[in-house]
Automatic annotation (TrEMBL), chain A:
The chain crosses the membrane at residues 30-49, 56-75. This is Multisubunit sodium/proton antiporter MrpF subunit. It is found in: Cell membrane. Pfam families: MrpF_PhaF. Keywords: Cell membrane, Membrane, Transmembrane, Transmembrane helix, Transport. PANTHER family: NA(+)/H(+) ANTIPORTER SUBUNIT F1, NA(+)_H(+) ANTIPORTER SUBUNIT F. It is a multi-pass membrane protein. Belongs to the CPA3 antiporters (TC 2.A.63) subunit F family. GO terms for molecular function: sodium:proton antiporter activity. One of its GO terms (cellular component) is plasma membrane.
From TrEMBL, chain B:
The lineage of its organism: Bacteria, Pseudomonadati, Pseudomonadota, Gammaproteobacteria, Nevskiales. PANTHER family: ANTIPORTER SUBUNIT MNHG2-RELATED. The chain crosses the membrane at residues 6-30, 42-60, 72-94. It comes from the Bacteria. It holds the Pfam family PhaG_MnhG_YufB. The keyword Membrane applies. This is Multisubunit sodium/proton antiporter MrpG subunit. One of its GO terms (molecular function) is sodium:proton antiporter activity. Keywords: Membrane, Transmembrane, Transmembrane helix. NCBIfam families: CPA3_mnhG_phaG. The keyword Membrane applies.
UniProtKB/TrEMBL annotation, chain C:
Belongs to the CPA3 antiporters (TC 2.A.63) subunit B family. The chain crosses the membrane at residues 6-23, 28-48, 54-77, 89-107, 155-173, 194-213, 225-247, 259-278, 298-320. Keywords: Cell membrane, Membrane, Transmembrane, Transmembrane helix. It is found in: Cell membrane. The keyword rRNA-binding does not apply. It is a multi-pass membrane protein. The keyword Acetylation does not apply. GO terms for cellular component: plasma membrane. Residues 112-173 form the MrpA C-terminal/MbhE domain. This is Multisubunit sodium/proton antiporter MrpB subunit. It comes from Sinimarinibacterium flocculans. Residues 14-77 form the MrpA C-terminal/MbhD domain. Its main location: membrane.
Length: 95, 109, 330
Protein backbone atom coordinates (compact mmCIF):
# COMPACT_ATOMS: atom_id res chain seq x y z
CA UNK A 1 0.00 0.00 0.00
CA UNK A 2 2.83 2.37 0.85
CA UNK A 3 4.34 1.80 -2.56
CA UNK A 4 1.02 2.46 -4.26
CA UNK A 5 0.62 5.62 -2.20
CA UNK A 6 4.09 6.79 -3.27
CA UNK A 7 3.29 6.19 -6.90
CA UNK A 8 -0.05 7.97 -6.53
CA UNK A 9 1.74 10.97 -5.04
CA UNK A 10 4.23 10.95 -7.90
CA UNK A 11 1.36 11.02 -10.40
CA UNK A 12 -0.13 13.97 -8.56
CA UNK A 13 3.28 15.69 -8.65
CA UNK A 14 3.42 15.22 -12.42
CA UNK A 15 -0.02 16.80 -12.82
CA UNK A 16 1.02 19.75 -10.67
CA UNK A 17 4.19 20.13 -12.72
CA UNK A 18 2.11 20.22 -15.88
CA UNK A 19 0.06 23.07 -14.40
CA UNK A 20 3.21 24.93 -13.39
CA UNK A 21 4.57 24.66 -16.92
CA UNK A 22 1.33 25.50 -18.69
CA UNK A 23 0.41 28.47 -16.52
CA UNK A 24 -1.16 30.48 -18.05
CA UNK A 25 -1.11 33.17 -15.34
CA UNK A 26 1.57 33.64 -12.70
CA UNK A 27 -0.97 32.75 -10.03
CA UNK A 28 -1.59 29.36 -11.59
CA UNK A 29 2.11 28.66 -11.42
CA UNK A 30 2.44 29.75 -7.80
CA UNK A 31 -0.55 27.61 -6.93
CA UNK A 32 0.99 24.63 -8.72
CA UNK A 33 4.35 25.06 -6.99
CA UNK A 34 2.71 25.40 -3.61
CA UNK A 35 0.69 22.28 -4.24
CA UNK A 36 3.81 20.48 -5.47
CA UNK A 37 5.46 21.40 -2.19
CA UNK A 38 2.64 19.85 -0.15
CA UNK A 39 2.89 16.70 -2.24
CA UNK A 40 6.64 16.60 -1.66
CA UNK A 41 6.09 16.74 2.09
CA UNK A 42 3.69 13.80 1.83
CA UNK A 43 5.98 11.93 -0.56
CA UNK A 44 8.98 12.20 1.75
CA UNK A 45 6.88 11.13 4.72
CA UNK A 46 5.48 8.08 2.94
CA UNK A 47 8.86 7.19 1.41
CA UNK A 48 10.38 7.31 4.90
CA UNK A 49 7.91 4.70 6.07
CA UNK A 50 8.45 2.67 2.92
CA UNK A 51 12.19 2.63 3.58
CA UNK A 52 11.68 1.98 7.27
CA UNK A 53 13.54 5.18 8.08
CA UNK A 54 11.15 7.51 9.90
CA UNK A 55 13.92 10.05 10.49
CA UNK A 56 13.13 11.23 6.98
CA UNK A 57 10.25 13.01 8.64
CA UNK A 58 12.57 15.81 9.75
CA UNK A 59 12.97 16.78 6.11
CA UNK A 60 9.23 16.72 5.52
CA UNK A 61 8.89 18.93 8.57
CA UNK A 62 11.31 21.51 7.13
CA UNK A 63 9.23 21.70 3.98
CA UNK A 64 5.99 21.94 5.90
CA UNK A 65 7.46 24.90 7.78
CA UNK A 66 9.24 26.91 5.12
CA UNK A 67 7.66 26.01 1.79
CA UNK A 68 5.28 28.83 2.60
CA UNK A 69 8.07 31.45 2.47
CA UNK A 70 8.63 31.02 -1.25
CA UNK A 71 4.95 31.61 -1.93
CA UNK A 72 4.85 34.75 0.21
CA UNK A 73 8.02 36.03 -1.45
CA UNK A 74 6.78 35.61 -4.99
CA UNK A 75 3.40 37.18 -4.16
CA UNK A 76 5.17 40.09 -2.61
CA UNK A 77 7.52 40.60 -5.51
CA UNK A 78 4.94 40.19 -8.25
CA UNK A 79 2.75 42.71 -6.47
CA UNK A 80 5.24 45.35 -5.46
CA UNK A 81 8.30 44.67 -7.57
CA UNK A 82 10.41 44.64 -4.43
CA UNK A 83 10.62 43.00 -1.04
CA UNK A 84 11.06 46.07 1.08
CA UNK A 85 7.60 47.36 1.88
CA UNK A 86 5.53 45.74 4.57
CA UNK A 87 2.76 43.44 3.43
CA UNK A 88 0.24 46.21 3.83
CA UNK A 89 2.48 48.30 1.72
CA UNK A 90 2.74 51.22 -0.53
CA UNK A 91 -0.18 50.52 -2.80
CA UNK A 92 -2.62 50.47 0.05
CA UNK A 93 -3.60 47.08 -1.26
CA UNK A 94 -3.17 43.65 0.18
CA UNK A 95 -0.81 40.90 -0.84
CA UNK B 1 1.52 -10.30 14.95
CA UNK B 2 -1.48 -9.59 17.10
CA UNK B 3 -4.98 -9.13 15.77
CA UNK B 4 -4.91 -5.50 16.80
CA UNK B 5 -1.76 -5.03 14.80
CA UNK B 6 -3.31 -6.52 11.67
CA UNK B 7 -6.46 -4.49 12.14
CA UNK B 8 -4.44 -1.28 12.47
CA UNK B 9 -2.46 -2.16 9.38
CA UNK B 10 -5.61 -2.69 7.34
CA UNK B 11 -7.18 0.48 8.68
CA UNK B 12 -3.99 2.38 7.87
CA UNK B 13 -4.03 1.02 4.32
CA UNK B 14 -7.63 2.11 3.86
CA UNK B 15 -7.00 5.60 5.21
CA UNK B 16 -3.88 5.96 3.07
CA UNK B 17 -5.81 4.86 -0.01
CA UNK B 18 -8.50 7.43 0.72
CA UNK B 19 -5.85 10.10 1.22
CA UNK B 20 -4.12 9.33 -2.05
CA UNK B 21 -7.49 9.35 -3.79
CA UNK B 22 -8.09 12.89 -2.49
CA UNK B 23 -4.61 13.97 -3.51
CA UNK B 24 -5.15 12.60 -7.00
CA UNK B 25 -8.58 14.24 -7.23
CA UNK B 26 -7.04 17.54 -6.27
CA UNK B 27 -4.20 17.14 -8.73
CA UNK B 28 -6.58 16.20 -11.54
CA UNK B 29 -8.64 19.26 -10.71
CA UNK B 30 -5.54 21.44 -10.62
CA UNK B 31 -4.71 20.16 -14.05
CA UNK B 32 -8.12 20.06 -15.70
CA UNK B 33 -10.26 22.87 -14.31
CA UNK B 34 -10.56 25.84 -16.64
CA UNK B 35 -9.78 28.77 -14.41
CA UNK B 36 -7.54 29.92 -11.56
CA UNK B 37 -10.08 30.15 -8.74
CA UNK B 38 -11.50 26.72 -9.51
CA UNK B 39 -7.99 25.34 -9.49
CA UNK B 40 -7.39 26.92 -6.07
CA UNK B 41 -10.41 25.02 -4.89
CA UNK B 42 -9.05 21.74 -6.27
CA UNK B 43 -5.60 22.32 -4.85
CA UNK B 44 -6.97 22.87 -1.38
CA UNK B 45 -8.52 19.37 -1.46
CA UNK B 46 -4.97 18.04 -1.65
CA UNK B 47 -3.86 20.22 1.22
CA UNK B 48 -6.70 19.46 3.59
CA UNK B 49 -8.31 16.07 3.05
CA UNK B 50 -5.41 14.48 1.17
CA UNK B 51 -2.63 15.54 3.53
CA UNK B 52 -4.74 14.96 6.63
CA UNK B 53 -5.73 11.43 5.68
CA UNK B 54 -2.24 10.41 4.55
CA UNK B 55 -0.71 11.64 7.80
CA UNK B 56 -3.45 9.85 9.74
CA UNK B 57 -2.75 6.68 7.78
CA UNK B 58 0.94 6.88 8.61
CA UNK B 59 0.13 7.61 12.24
CA UNK B 60 -1.82 4.36 12.46
CA UNK B 61 1.30 2.37 11.62
CA UNK B 62 3.67 4.32 13.87
CA UNK B 63 5.07 2.64 16.96
CA UNK B 64 7.52 5.16 18.41
CA UNK B 65 6.48 8.37 20.07
CA UNK B 66 9.01 10.73 18.37
CA UNK B 67 7.83 9.62 14.94
CA UNK B 68 4.20 10.14 15.88
CA UNK B 69 5.04 13.58 17.26
CA UNK B 70 6.73 14.55 14.02
CA UNK B 71 3.75 13.39 11.98
CA UNK B 72 1.37 15.39 14.14
CA UNK B 73 3.60 18.46 13.77
CA UNK B 74 3.73 18.05 9.99
CA UNK B 75 -0.07 17.87 9.84
CA UNK B 76 -0.35 20.83 12.20
CA UNK B 77 1.94 23.07 10.16
CA UNK B 78 0.42 22.01 6.84
CA UNK B 79 -3.02 22.86 8.21
CA UNK B 80 -1.80 26.38 8.90
CA UNK B 81 0.43 27.17 5.96
CA UNK B 82 -1.50 25.70 3.03
CA UNK B 83 -4.81 27.48 3.55
CA UNK B 84 -2.95 30.71 4.30
CA UNK B 85 -0.99 30.41 1.09
CA UNK B 86 -4.16 29.69 -0.90
CA UNK B 87 -5.90 32.61 0.77
CA UNK B 88 -3.07 35.05 0.10
CA UNK B 89 -2.85 33.82 -3.46
CA UNK B 90 -6.54 34.18 -4.19
CA UNK B 91 -6.61 37.60 -2.57
CA UNK B 92 -3.64 38.72 -4.64
CA UNK B 93 -5.33 37.48 -7.81
CA UNK B 94 -8.50 39.35 -6.85
CA UNK B 95 -6.48 42.47 -6.18
CA UNK B 96 -4.96 42.09 -9.63
CA UNK B 97 -8.37 42.24 -11.22
CA UNK B 98 -8.99 38.55 -11.81
CA UNK B 99 -12.56 37.53 -11.02
CA UNK B 100 -14.00 34.06 -10.55
CA UNK B 101 -15.87 32.95 -13.64
CA UNK B 102 -19.47 33.97 -13.64
CA UNK B 103 -18.83 37.13 -11.66
CA UNK B 104 -18.47 40.22 -13.76
CA UNK B 105 -15.41 42.36 -13.17
CA UNK B 106 -12.48 44.05 -14.77
CA UNK B 107 -9.63 41.93 -15.96
CA UNK B 108 -6.69 44.22 -16.05
CA UNK B 109 -3.61 42.08 -16.50
CA UNK C 1 13.26 -4.07 -6.11
CA UNK C 2 11.17 -2.92 -9.00
CA UNK C 3 8.95 -0.66 -6.95
CA UNK C 4 11.89 1.48 -5.88
CA UNK C 5 13.17 1.60 -9.41
CA UNK C 6 9.78 2.79 -10.62
CA UNK C 7 9.86 5.61 -8.06
CA UNK C 8 13.38 6.58 -9.10
CA UNK C 9 12.42 6.60 -12.77
CA UNK C 10 9.34 8.73 -12.08
CA UNK C 11 11.38 11.22 -10.03
CA UNK C 12 14.05 11.52 -12.70
CA UNK C 13 11.36 11.94 -15.35
CA UNK C 14 9.91 14.85 -13.35
CA UNK C 15 13.41 16.29 -12.99
CA UNK C 16 14.12 16.09 -16.72
CA UNK C 17 10.71 17.50 -17.64
CA UNK C 18 11.27 20.42 -15.27
CA UNK C 19 14.71 21.03 -16.74
CA UNK C 20 13.36 21.14 -20.28
CA UNK C 21 10.56 23.47 -19.24
CA UNK C 22 13.07 25.78 -17.54
CA UNK C 23 15.12 25.93 -20.73
CA UNK C 24 12.03 26.65 -22.83
CA UNK C 25 10.23 29.29 -20.79
CA UNK C 26 11.31 32.91 -21.16
CA UNK C 27 9.37 34.46 -18.29
CA UNK C 28 11.85 34.42 -15.46
CA UNK C 29 9.19 34.45 -12.75
CA UNK C 30 7.95 31.13 -14.05
CA UNK C 31 11.52 29.89 -14.24
CA UNK C 32 12.08 30.80 -10.59
CA UNK C 33 8.96 28.84 -9.69
CA UNK C 34 10.03 25.85 -11.75
CA UNK C 35 13.47 25.84 -10.19
CA UNK C 36 11.65 25.54 -6.88
CA UNK C 37 10.03 22.37 -8.24
CA UNK C 38 13.44 21.20 -9.47
CA UNK C 39 14.83 21.60 -5.99
CA UNK C 40 11.89 19.78 -4.37
CA UNK C 41 12.32 16.87 -6.77
CA UNK C 42 16.07 16.70 -6.17
CA UNK C 43 15.39 16.53 -2.43
CA UNK C 44 13.06 13.59 -3.06
CA UNK C 45 15.78 11.85 -5.08
CA UNK C 46 18.34 12.43 -2.33
CA UNK C 47 15.88 10.95 0.16
CA UNK C 48 15.46 7.90 -2.04
CA UNK C 49 19.25 7.54 -2.20
CA UNK C 50 19.33 7.57 1.60
CA UNK C 51 21.42 10.76 1.57
CA UNK C 52 19.38 12.32 4.35
CA UNK C 53 21.76 15.14 5.25
CA UNK C 54 22.08 16.24 1.63
CA UNK C 55 18.31 16.11 1.25
CA UNK C 56 18.03 18.20 4.38
CA UNK C 57 20.33 20.87 2.96
CA UNK C 58 18.46 20.85 -0.33
CA UNK C 59 15.18 21.16 1.57
CA UNK C 60 16.32 24.04 3.73
CA UNK C 61 18.11 25.96 1.00
CA UNK C 62 15.85 25.12 -1.92
CA UNK C 63 12.46 25.70 -0.32
CA UNK C 64 13.11 29.10 1.17
CA UNK C 65 16.39 30.75 0.33
CA UNK C 66 16.97 29.99 -3.35
CA UNK C 67 13.54 31.14 -4.48
CA UNK C 68 13.77 34.29 -2.39
CA UNK C 69 17.25 35.15 -3.70
CA UNK C 70 16.25 34.41 -7.32
CA UNK C 71 13.28 36.71 -6.93
CA UNK C 72 15.49 39.33 -5.29
CA UNK C 73 17.79 39.18 -8.29
CA UNK C 74 14.80 39.47 -10.63
CA UNK C 75 13.66 42.57 -8.81
CA UNK C 76 17.01 44.18 -9.56
CA UNK C 77 17.22 43.14 -13.20
CA UNK C 78 14.58 42.24 -15.75
CA UNK C 79 11.92 39.58 -15.57
CA UNK C 80 12.15 38.34 -19.14
CA UNK C 81 15.00 36.35 -20.55
CA UNK C 82 16.78 37.93 -23.47
CA UNK C 83 16.51 35.98 -26.70
CA UNK C 84 19.81 34.59 -27.82
CA UNK C 85 20.32 34.95 -31.56
CA UNK C 86 20.40 31.64 -33.46
CA UNK C 87 23.88 32.30 -34.77
CA UNK C 88 25.24 32.42 -31.26
CA UNK C 89 23.33 29.41 -30.00
CA UNK C 90 24.94 27.05 -32.52
CA UNK C 91 28.45 27.23 -31.00
CA UNK C 92 26.86 26.84 -27.56
CA UNK C 93 25.10 23.71 -28.78
CA UNK C 94 28.40 22.34 -30.09
CA UNK C 95 30.14 22.99 -26.77
CA UNK C 96 27.30 21.35 -24.87
CA UNK C 97 27.27 18.35 -27.20
CA UNK C 98 31.06 17.94 -26.96
CA UNK C 99 30.97 18.15 -23.16
CA UNK C 100 28.12 15.67 -23.03
CA UNK C 101 29.96 13.26 -25.33
CA UNK C 102 33.10 13.55 -23.22
CA UNK C 103 31.12 12.82 -20.06
CA UNK C 104 29.41 9.81 -21.62
CA UNK C 105 32.80 8.56 -22.80
CA UNK C 106 34.29 9.06 -19.34
CA UNK C 107 31.39 7.26 -17.70
CA UNK C 108 32.60 4.05 -19.37
CA UNK C 109 35.40 3.98 -16.80
CA UNK C 110 33.05 4.20 -13.84
CA UNK C 111 32.39 1.02 -11.89
CA UNK C 112 29.05 -0.61 -12.71
CA UNK C 113 26.00 0.82 -10.89
CA UNK C 114 25.66 -0.52 -7.36
CA UNK C 115 28.58 -2.94 -7.67
CA UNK C 116 29.92 -4.24 -4.36
CA UNK C 117 33.67 -3.94 -4.99
CA UNK C 118 33.75 -0.41 -6.37
CA UNK C 119 36.63 1.73 -5.04
CA UNK C 120 34.25 3.55 -2.71
CA UNK C 121 33.31 0.30 -1.02
CA UNK C 122 36.80 -1.17 -0.79
CA UNK C 123 38.82 1.90 0.16
CA UNK C 124 40.04 1.69 3.79
CA UNK C 125 38.70 5.17 4.55
CA UNK C 126 35.11 3.90 4.16
CA UNK C 127 35.74 1.30 6.84
CA UNK C 128 37.30 3.94 9.07
CA UNK C 129 34.40 6.39 8.71
CA UNK C 130 31.58 3.89 9.00
CA UNK C 131 32.95 1.48 11.61
CA UNK C 132 35.70 3.11 13.64
CA UNK C 133 34.04 6.52 13.94
CA UNK C 134 31.62 5.10 16.51
CA UNK C 135 34.42 4.63 19.04
CA UNK C 136 36.77 7.37 17.84
CA UNK C 137 34.15 10.09 17.86
CA UNK C 138 31.08 8.52 19.39
CA UNK C 139 28.57 10.50 17.34
CA UNK C 140 25.71 8.40 15.92
CA UNK C 141 25.35 10.42 12.72
CA UNK C 142 28.42 9.47 10.69
CA UNK C 143 27.88 12.39 8.31
CA UNK C 144 28.37 14.80 11.19
CA UNK C 145 31.58 13.14 12.35
CA UNK C 146 32.98 13.16 8.82
CA UNK C 147 31.90 16.74 8.21
CA UNK C 148 32.96 18.30 11.47
CA UNK C 149 35.84 16.13 12.61
CA UNK C 150 37.55 13.97 9.96
CA UNK C 151 37.03 16.63 7.34
CA UNK C 152 37.00 19.59 9.69
CA UNK C 153 39.50 21.42 7.51
CA UNK C 154 37.26 21.26 4.44
CA UNK C 155 34.26 22.43 6.40
CA UNK C 156 36.24 25.35 7.74
CA UNK C 157 36.97 26.21 4.14
CA UNK C 158 33.26 26.06 3.31
CA UNK C 159 32.39 28.42 6.14
CA UNK C 160 35.03 30.85 4.94
CA UNK C 161 33.57 30.61 1.44
CA UNK C 162 30.08 31.50 2.72
CA UNK C 163 31.52 34.38 4.73
CA UNK C 164 33.45 35.65 1.71
CA UNK C 165 30.40 35.35 -0.52
CA UNK C 166 28.35 37.42 1.92
CA UNK C 167 31.06 40.10 1.99
CA UNK C 168 31.21 40.12 -1.80
CA UNK C 169 27.44 40.59 -2.10
CA UNK C 170 27.55 43.38 0.46
CA UNK C 171 30.27 45.09 -1.55
CA UNK C 172 28.29 44.76 -4.78
CA UNK C 173 24.82 45.67 -3.54
CA UNK C 174 25.71 48.04 -0.74
CA UNK C 175 24.86 47.47 2.87
CA UNK C 176 21.17 47.72 2.26
CA UNK C 177 21.21 50.43 4.87
CA UNK C 178 20.56 53.41 2.65
CA UNK C 179 16.96 53.87 1.74
CA UNK C 180 14.97 56.85 0.70
CA UNK C 181 12.15 58.31 2.73
CA UNK C 182 9.14 56.13 2.15
CA UNK C 183 5.62 57.36 1.74
CA UNK C 184 3.83 54.34 3.09
CA UNK C 185 0.20 55.13 3.82
CA UNK C 186 -1.28 53.98 7.11
CA UNK C 187 -1.42 50.22 6.89
CA UNK C 188 -4.67 48.56 6.02
CA UNK C 189 -4.17 45.80 8.44
CA UNK C 190 -7.46 43.96 8.29
CA UNK C 191 -7.07 42.60 4.76
CA UNK C 192 -3.69 41.20 5.70
CA UNK C 193 -4.74 39.79 9.00
CA UNK C 194 -4.66 36.11 8.06
CA UNK C 195 -1.13 36.23 6.73
CA UNK C 196 0.11 38.26 9.68
CA UNK C 197 -1.44 36.01 12.28
CA UNK C 198 -0.21 32.82 10.66
CA UNK C 199 3.29 34.21 10.15
CA UNK C 200 3.42 35.31 13.76
CA UNK C 201 2.36 31.86 14.84
CA UNK C 202 4.78 30.09 12.55
CA UNK C 203 7.97 32.09 13.06
CA UNK C 204 8.71 30.95 16.65
CA UNK C 205 8.36 27.33 15.53
CA UNK C 206 10.69 27.88 12.59
CA UNK C 207 13.30 29.37 14.93
CA UNK C 208 12.77 26.57 17.45
CA UNK C 209 13.13 23.97 14.73
CA UNK C 210 16.34 25.69 13.62
CA UNK C 211 17.73 25.29 17.12
CA UNK C 212 16.66 21.64 17.17
CA UNK C 213 18.41 21.00 13.86
CA UNK C 214 21.50 22.80 15.12
CA UNK C 215 21.91 20.76 18.29
CA UNK C 216 20.42 17.48 17.12
CA UNK C 217 22.87 17.18 14.21
CA UNK C 218 24.97 14.67 16.17
CA UNK C 219 22.09 12.22 16.33
CA UNK C 220 19.97 12.78 13.25
CA UNK C 221 20.16 14.60 9.96
CA UNK C 222 21.08 18.24 10.33
CA UNK C 223 23.81 20.51 11.57
CA UNK C 224 25.03 24.05 11.39
CA UNK C 225 24.46 24.67 7.69
CA UNK C 226 20.85 23.53 7.64
CA UNK C 227 20.08 25.16 10.97
CA UNK C 228 21.54 28.46 9.82
CA UNK C 229 19.39 28.52 6.72
CA UNK C 230 16.24 27.58 8.64
CA UNK C 231 16.91 30.23 11.24
CA UNK C 232 17.48 32.83 8.54
CA UNK C 233 14.28 31.71 6.80
CA UNK C 234 12.35 32.59 9.94
CA UNK C 235 13.75 36.12 9.95
CA UNK C 236 13.15 36.47 6.21
CA UNK C 237 9.51 35.44 6.61
CA UNK C 238 9.21 38.15 9.25
CA UNK C 239 10.73 40.70 6.90
CA UNK C 240 8.42 39.66 4.07
CA UNK C 241 5.24 39.94 6.08
CA UNK C 242 5.98 42.77 8.49
CA UNK C 243 8.31 44.81 6.33
CA UNK C 244 12.03 45.19 5.99
CA UNK C 245 12.21 48.02 8.50
CA UNK C 246 10.58 45.96 11.22
CA UNK C 247 12.98 43.10 10.59
CA UNK C 248 15.93 45.49 10.54
CA UNK C 249 15.02 46.95 13.88
CA UNK C 250 14.73 43.45 15.36
CA UNK C 251 17.83 41.98 13.74
CA UNK C 252 19.93 44.98 12.74
CA UNK C 253 22.71 44.90 10.21
CA UNK C 254 25.22 46.20 12.74
CA UNK C 255 24.66 43.01 14.75
CA UNK C 256 24.74 40.70 11.75
CA UNK C 257 28.05 41.89 10.34
CA UNK C 258 30.12 41.08 13.45
CA UNK C 259 28.04 37.93 13.93
CA UNK C 260 29.02 36.58 10.52
CA UNK C 261 32.66 37.02 11.43
CA UNK C 262 32.11 35.58 14.91
CA UNK C 263 31.09 32.22 13.49
CA UNK C 264 34.29 31.95 11.48
CA UNK C 265 36.30 33.06 14.51
CA UNK C 266 34.63 30.44 16.72
CA UNK C 267 35.46 27.73 14.20
CA UNK C 268 39.03 28.91 13.71
CA UNK C 269 39.35 29.55 17.44
CA UNK C 270 38.66 25.92 18.22
CA UNK C 271 41.46 25.04 15.81
CA UNK C 272 43.85 27.49 17.44
CA UNK C 273 42.87 26.22 20.89
CA UNK C 274 43.76 22.67 19.92
CA UNK C 275 47.06 23.96 18.55
CA UNK C 276 47.75 25.69 21.89
CA UNK C 277 46.94 22.47 23.73
CA UNK C 278 49.64 20.74 21.79
CA UNK C 279 47.64 18.97 19.11
CA UNK C 280 47.25 19.67 15.45
CA UNK C 281 44.71 22.13 14.01
CA UNK C 282 41.13 21.01 14.84
CA UNK C 283 42.33 17.94 16.74
CA UNK C 284 39.42 17.85 19.18
CA UNK C 285 40.89 15.03 21.26
CA UNK C 286 43.08 17.66 22.91
CA UNK C 287 40.08 19.49 24.31
CA UNK C 288 39.59 16.71 26.86
CA UNK C 289 42.78 14.66 27.04
CA UNK C 290 41.35 12.12 29.47
CA UNK C 291 38.29 11.34 27.39
CA UNK C 292 38.80 11.77 23.64
CA UNK C 293 35.12 11.17 22.87
CA UNK C 294 34.10 14.03 25.16
CA UNK C 295 36.67 16.24 23.44
CA UNK C 296 35.25 15.30 20.06
CA UNK C 297 31.73 16.07 21.25
CA UNK C 298 32.74 19.48 22.55
CA UNK C 299 34.75 20.27 19.43
CA UNK C 300 31.94 19.27 17.07
CA UNK C 301 29.39 21.22 19.09
CA UNK C 302 31.48 24.41 18.98
CA UNK C 303 32.40 24.04 15.35
CA UNK C 304 28.79 23.43 14.30
CA UNK C 305 27.76 26.43 16.35
CA UNK C 306 30.29 28.53 14.45
CA UNK C 307 28.91 27.26 11.15
CA UNK C 308 25.35 27.97 12.23
CA UNK C 309 26.13 31.53 13.34
CA UNK C 310 27.96 32.43 10.15
CA UNK C 311 25.35 30.88 7.86
CA UNK C 312 22.46 32.58 9.67
CA UNK C 313 24.11 35.99 9.57
CA UNK C 314 25.27 35.60 5.98
CA UNK C 315 21.83 34.53 4.69
CA UNK C 316 20.00 37.36 6.44
CA UNK C 317 22.57 39.87 5.18
CA UNK C 318 22.14 38.57 1.63
CA UNK C 319 18.40 39.04 1.89
CA UNK C 320 18.73 42.52 3.40
CA UNK C 321 21.05 43.69 0.66
CA UNK C 322 18.77 42.42 -2.11
CA UNK C 323 15.62 43.78 -0.51
CA UNK C 324 17.14 47.10 0.54
CA UNK C 325 18.53 47.66 -2.90
CA UNK C 326 15.12 47.15 -4.48
CA UNK C 327 13.62 49.83 -2.29
CA UNK C 328 16.19 52.40 -3.20
CA UNK C 329 15.76 51.89 -6.89
CA UNK C 330 12.02 52.21 -7.06
Amino acid sequence: MLLAATLGLLTAMLLALARAVLGPTLYDRILAVNSFGTKTVLFIAVAGFLAGRPDFLDIALVYALINFIGTVAVLKLSHYGEFGASATGAHGDDL
Amino acid sequence: MSTLHVALQILSDLVLAAGVLFVLTGAAGLHRLPEFFMRTHAASITDSAGAGLIVLGLLLRTEEFPTALRLVLIAFFLMFTSPTASHALAQAALGDGFRPQGIRGRKTS
Amino acid sequence: MTGWMLIDIALFAILVATGIAIAQIRQLFAVAMLSGIFSLTSACIFVMQDAVDVAFTEAAVGAGMTTVLFLGALALTRTREKETPRTRSLPALLVAAATGAALVYASQDLPAFGIADSPVQTHPVTERYLVTSAEEIGVPNVVTSVLASYRGYDTFGEVVVIFTAAIAVLMLLGHGATRGVEEVPPPMRDRQRVLRVVAKLLIPYILLFGLYVQFHGDYGPGGGFQAGVIFAAGVILYALVFGLDAARSGVPMRVLRPLAATGVVVYGGVGVATLMLGGSFLDYNRLAPDDPAAGQHLGILLVELGVGITVTAAMIMLFYSFAGRGVRRS
